[in-house]
């Protein structure tokens, strides 16, 4: 369990990051929180939203305030793995330029347009923190995070896409801003001078913040709740609610329960608590689960979204207090 001083340092660092990002990014507090959770968990994110919703701005600004190197991959069907890796394995002192994959924060624009070979390279980077090209292994940066953007028109319709996206820790949605927020954005863009962001966390401090979050506790009843949420999304798995049979083809895999618990712990730390709660699990359920659930044709025909499925899930799955016995039907088929 982290001590009080370390926890206060984590809180103050998070507050300073949000304060700096607010200078450049309008109305994306939840996006910033979720991205920070993923970064501290050494996870990767899908960014989904309309054009102009500040996906690139959030990624580049976050890297700036953390003192991390930022680069981007502009996806086209013609993009090759060689373009992504560049000459990153060149000898020390060489003037040859490394590819974008060697940055700390890599924005992969329009992720769905990658060729199969380039997509496989990105997937390997996510899973192994290294890439292999032409028989040579290339280690990646530490910290290393991929933020892959996608437009909301894209909707997964088969299990292949689901398993593909499952390697991302979170799918974070950028919504259109409210009227007042869009006014503030228009006003900000009309300013003659660009916004200067300060670095508020040193790169070496980021490792210390990760260490603090690793000490946050997750009581058994919180882990049980996360597990029951995940298992309830699966057909013929324990006490699956009736609406899942009506709306869902494929549920979340085992990686989801791990990420739910880990994200809940980190969120608790960001808000100064030494122990995660079921409320923390609920707060991260949407970005953790929305790319791991595949709705069926009935749901799509009637306009039932994945977020609606998750809301219903959070409403119907019962919370249990610490010390309550778990029913065997919740833990096995």
Would you mind describing this structure in some detail?
This protein is α/β, with parallel strands linked by helices. It folds into two domains: 4-201, Rossmann fold (3-Layer(aba) Sandwich); 208-317, Helicase, Ruva Protein, domain 3 (Orthogonal Bundle), CATH 1.10.8. The protein is built from 15 helices and nine strands. The strands form three sheets. It has a five-stranded parallel beta sheet with strand order 2-3-6-1-7. Strands 4-5 form a two-stranded antiparallel sheet. Helix 1 crosses helix 3 (55-66), helix 2 crosses helix 11 (254-270) and helix 9 packs across helix 11 (254-270). The longest helix is centred in the N-terminal third of the chain and has 21 residues, at 4-24. The model is unreliable at 154-161 and 328-333 (pLDDT under 50).
Radius of gyration: 21 Å
**Strand portion:** 5-15%
CATH topology assignment of the largest domain: Rossmann fold
State the distance separating the first and last CA atoms: 34 Å
Helix content: 40-55%
Task: Please give a handful of descriptors for the protein shown.
Rossmann fold, 2 domains, globular, alpha/beta, Helicase, Ruva Protein, domain 3, 5-stranded parallel β-sheet
